[in-house]
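subagent[fold] <- orchestrator: predict structure for attached chain, return tokens only, no commentary.
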Amino acid sequence: MKAAATHPATSLTPLRVAAFRRFVLANLVSTTGSAMAPLALAYAVIGQGGGAGSLGVVLATNSVPTIVFTVAGGVLADRLSRSRILFLGNLLSAAAQATLAVLVATHHATTVSIAACGFVSGIAVAFTAPAATGVVGQLVAAEHLQQANALVRLPNNAVKVLGPVVGGVIVAVGGPAWALSWDAFTFLVAALLLLGLRLDAPVTTASALADLRAGWAGFRARTWLWTYTAAGTVVVAAWLAGFQLLGPVVATEHYSGARSWGLVQGAFAFGLLAGTVVCLRWRPHRLLTVAVITGSGLCLPPAALGTGLDLPWVLLGAVLAGIGLDVAIVAWNTALQQHVPQAELGRLSSFNGVGERVAIPLGYLVTALAAHAWDDRTVLLVCAGAIAATTILNLCVRDVYRVNRVRACRDALDGAPGG
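subagent[fold] -> orchestrator:
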């Protein structure tokens, strides 16, 4: 990687780097549309006569390409300009959402056409996600990576609190086509902003297949990386099954239904935002240990729902889970960026991403099977127990305690001008 050509002056804090501000703004703009998209998509399917089955097909079609193509995206992220990949990915997403908006507005949308647009969007995500992980490290010095990762997530989490509400109003007043059009427009604006980054491409001499093999070897050689990925697959699967899938069902049966579940979702979103603020102030030394421990907070909401605690306790569990999850994400991204060379970051982050994305169908499938044997609350408790047990097992890996914050860069810069 041409570090000298793509890296800013290392003494600058993230928000003083113009390229980083551009990257954050692009993420913020696209998130304002993406936060509304799930609701608009659901009502687009319902509006053309589809039900739960049709929506399931659409969601599956969107998630499959992110599993299949993420590794390819990781290879390209280590071979091509990451800023160009992000530009093209956002442009592709804009085209897919614009096409979908036109189909819905003209009443020509079908389950097949909606799924096809979702498939294209899924491909875009598969190629942009690994590139985005590496871009932060190219724009910001190593000692500022945690702050940079938190700053990227701060406006995104704030939008996630308000986005679904605003999206609901837009869909109710104007229909899903307007929300989908806004999503397409935000992707286009983000693409134009990302076009201005102009990060250099790495110098590569090996073939793409050789790069893939080298990336897999590097992934396997780092015990902390593949064990965290394996643990994350279990944790994400249990979380999706215990919170996203069974949570609304239990809220309907034992609480006040949609109102209670809306409060729980809001509490979780507030926790994510609070977790980002924590990361702006707290700089733990043991990055990976913190990521593992704080991620275990995801067991709290399913445990509270499973044991039948009153709603205030469920809300508290959701807030704590949100705080823990965001701290875990920021700590993990910082550890990955500091301990994996830039030349390998796209591939290794893509292997980690595949593990977490596989958890989506895995969690739903296991829950569907378990629902035939146990009642919903028992399944919730099993999911909470799986998260806790996986955390304990991951903490038994010695390398977890060796992946700590890199301080050498800061020490070397103490005497530098502006450092």
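orchestrator: received. Logging for downstream: Residues 1-6, 409-419 have pLDDT under 50 and may be disordered. The chain has two domains: 17-140+162-195, 218-413.
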